[in-house]
Amino acid sequence: MNYVTADDAVLDRLSGLMEPTEIRDTNGNVLGTYVPLISTEERALYERAVQLFDPAETERRLREEENTAKRPFSDVIKRLEALNKP
Question: Residues 20, 33: contact at Cβ < 8 Å?
Answer without folding.
Answer: yes
